[in-house]
Design a protein that fits this description.
Mean pLDDT of chain A: 94
Mean pLDDT of chain B: 91
Low-confidence stretches of chain A: none
Oligomer: heterodimer
Order of helices and strands of chain A: EEEEEEEEEEE
Number of helices of chain B: 0
Strand content of chain B: over 45%
Order of helices and strands of chain B: EEEEEEEEE
Strand order of the largest sheet of chain B: 1-9-8-3-4
Radius of gyration of chain A: 13 Å
Shape of chain A: globular
Largest sheet of chain A: 7 strands, mixed
Largest sheet of chain B: 5 strands, mixed
Distance between the termini of chain A: 36 Å
Structural class of chain B: mainly beta
Helix content of chain B: under 10%
Helix content of chain A: under 10%
Radius of gyration of chain B: 13 Å
Largest interface: A-B, 30 and 31 residues
Number of strands of chain B: 9
Strand content of chain A: over 45%
């Protein structure tokens, strides 16, 4: 089954404790991206990757890191999480990074930073 | 970057046809129009995509007038399970879709 898998689905942690949210897709998609969704602010893009070893900042990259060493994986790293990063996070992938390809989203990761 | 404008919310009743219109006055020649559906605490799901005229799939229809400055998502005979937020996105087939921004979307509530 074609899917985007995020782990963990839920995480409660404390300020400053490094964490990684993994994202994997099995559709051989070139494009992957991370979003965060907050009430009243909608979906905002954090980082995106056009292909392996190619990443770029989205609208809200501060406090986050990403890497794309393999085509299927695009982990989101919070080196020193803070409470303002408490949010619902979504990973997405698409065949290419162009406007005529649909994005496939994971089920989301709910992070709570205390 | 083509900005999109949608109604914040809409109400409907089961069995009715629902039309959600999105305005994109600055749409460029190479831009496609894509609609997504999102249920609470789930990732957005692709519904339909088009460039011009009309596109239909098993879920919805998308109407795009000749000037392409707006588009209308049509959901036939909605049910309670169609209650969700619907997003309209416009994106260039040449550039990466970082140019596509998810706006506030339209919150559709279907009542019994």
């Amino acid at each position: 089954e074609a899917q985007v898998t995020q782990n963990p689905r839920y995480l409660i942690t404390v300020t400053g404790k490094k964490l990684t949210v993994t994202c994997s897709q099995n559709m051989n998609h070139e494009y992957m991206s991370w979003y965060r969704q907050d009430p009243g602010l909608g979906l905002r893009q954090i980082y995106y990757s056009m292909n392996v070893e190619v990443t770029d900042k989205g609208d809200v990259p501060e406090g986050y890191k990403v890497s794309r060493k393999e085509k299927r994986n695009f982990p989101l790293i919070l080196e020193s999480p803070s409470p303002n990063q408490t949010s619902l996070y979504f990973c997405a992938s698409s065949l290419s990074g162009t406007g005529d390809t649909a994005q496939h989203f994971g089920d989301g990761t709910r992070l709570s930073i205390l | 970057l083509a900005k999109t404008t949608q109604p914040i919310s809409m109400d409907s009743y089961e069995g009715q046809e629902v039309n959600i219109t999105c305005s994109h006055n600055n749409i460029a020649t190479n831009d496609y129009i894509t609609w997504y559906q999102q249920f609470p605490s789930q990732g957005p799901r692709f519904i339909i995509q088009g460039y011009k005229t009309k596109v239909t799939n098993e879920v919805a229809s998308l109407f795009i007038p000749a000037d392409r400055k707006s588009s209308t998502l049509s959901l036939p005979r909605v049910s309670l399970s169609d209650t969700a937020v619907y997003y309209c996105l416009v994106g260039d087939i040449r550039r990466n879709n970082n140019d596509m921004r998810f706006g506030a979307g339209t919150r559709l509530t279907v009542k019994p």
